[in-house]
Specification:
binds pyridoxal-5'-phosphate; 2 domains; single chain; alpha/beta; Aspartate Aminotransferase, domain 2; 16 strands; seven-stranded mixed sheet
């Protein structure tokens, strides 16, 4: 299909001459709740919206407890710590992700091992992990070790790419079998369900992001999802400077972090969450419109959710026929008012991670060379 026809279609779909990739939409109680924060002076670390936002998200995703953070990256950092990851451990993850996943495990001094993604999800592949483990790992005294490096393989952190759920039930089984903790990077997948269960609730801990470009935003922010009450209580403690509650004393029993989301951000989050189903419906409608539009195009494949799941379609994506077509398409669309982006550079191609072990990454390389994200902002009904 001619690129001009595509940009015209997208401008028409969004009813705009210049179409951004993904921008936030405020259509509900945002101003009201923000004003409440200002009127009551509770803009910072104390206030009712923090507790409410945690309760509301936990209820929406169907987990026992949720704990806010100042960013999704922080949420991943603390999640991996709470999963028991320590310096010089290895963490299995996908090379096709946003840098935050790898940064978070690096803060602890752990090392990523890059496992390939599945062709039908663009996310972490349980079958690739199984092959890698069978070849390279062994269980010693109830823990998993990499036979080549001698390091402990403590955790696995899959990422639900663009909101499309990975095969998380298979992965959970495999992790249990190999004594590996499962932490989900669900930063892109609030509103995405796998077999009716919300992403981020399958593993020991799941992490969400509320950055400005995500499905709902708090300006900046993140959250950890728990089914273990005790672990959630501990997470709250260490993300709030590990202060022992007392009316006036400053006593702390652990190295703590100042990772608590301010009330003013949580207020925004509460208002955004009230409309999440409308946002997800709109993104899914956009995805279906793209899917129909590209249906019979032999050179451009719209990436659709697999059966058995509901993707939030946070960012719609197409797979071009080769790398050259990817570059041409990016150039044409960005020159002509339609903002598009390639998928991330593979983590194992970045200088910090280029010496990390990987399994060949055939599918990840295929996608890195071909995937382009299309404009995906929530469309307000005019
Ligand atoms: C957005 C995102 C995060 C978290 O980002 P923050 O900006 O720190 O909230 C983590 N992982 C992935 C895959 C993301 O897309």
């Amino acid at each position: 299909m001619e690129f001009k026809k595509i940009t015209d279609f997208i401008k028409d779909l969004f009813q705009e001459e210049r179409v951004p990739l993904s921008v936030p939409v405020f259509m509900g109680n945002e101003k009201k709740y923000l004003n409440e924060c200002i009127d009551t002076t509770f803009v910072s670390s104390v206030g009712q919206f923090v507790d409410r936002f945690e309760k509301d998200v936990a209820e929406y995703v169907g987990c026992k407890r949720a704990v806010v953070c100042v960013s999704g990256t922080n949420a991943l950092h603390i999640s991996l710590m709470l999963a028991g990851v320590e310096r010089d451990d290895e963490v299995l993850t996908q090379p096709l992700t946003f840098i935050a996943t790898c940064n978070a495990l690096s803060y602890i001094g752990a090392h990523p091992v890059f496992i390939d993604v599945d062709m039908d999800t663009m996310g972490f592949s349980p079958s690739a992990m199984k092959s890698w483990l069978e070849k390279n790992a062994e269980i010693r005294k109830g823990e998993c070790f990499n036979k080549n490096t001698g390091r402990r393989v403590k955790a696995c952190i899959p990422m639900h790419t663009f909101g499309i759920p990975v095969k998380i039930d298979k992965l959970a089984e495999l992790c249990a079998e190999w004594h590996i903790e499962l932490v989900e990077d669900a930063a892109e997948s609030i509103g995405s369900f796998y077999k009716g269960k919300h992403t981020g609730t399958f593993g020991k801990i799941g992490a969400l992001s509320f950055n400005g470009n995500k499905t709902i935003t708090t300006g900046g922010g993140g959250m950890m999802l728990f089914n273990d009450e005790e672990l959630a209580t501990y997470a709250k403690h260490i993300t709030t400077q590990a202060k022992i509650p007392h009316r006036w004393e400053f006593k702390h029993d652990h190295i703590g972090y100042n990772y608590r989301m301010p009330n003013i951000n949580a207020a925004l989050g509460c208002a955004q969450l009230e409309n999440i189903e409308r946002y997800v419906d709109s993104k899914r409608e956009t995805a279906h419109a793209y899917a129909d539009f590209f249906r019979n195009d032999p050179n451009i494949q719209f990436f659709e959710e697999p059966a058995d799941c509901r993707s939030n379609y946070w960012l719609s994506a197409v797979v071009m026929k080769d790398h050259e077509a990817q570059l041409e398409f990016l150039e044409y669309t960005n020159d002509n008012g339609v903002m598009t982006r390639p998928i991330w550079e593979l983590m194992n191609r970045l200088p910090m991670f280029e010496n990390c072990e990987n399994d060949g990454l055939k599918n990840a390389i295929y996608f890195a060379d071909r995937v382009v994200n299309l404009p995906s902002s929530v469309r307000l009904k005019k």
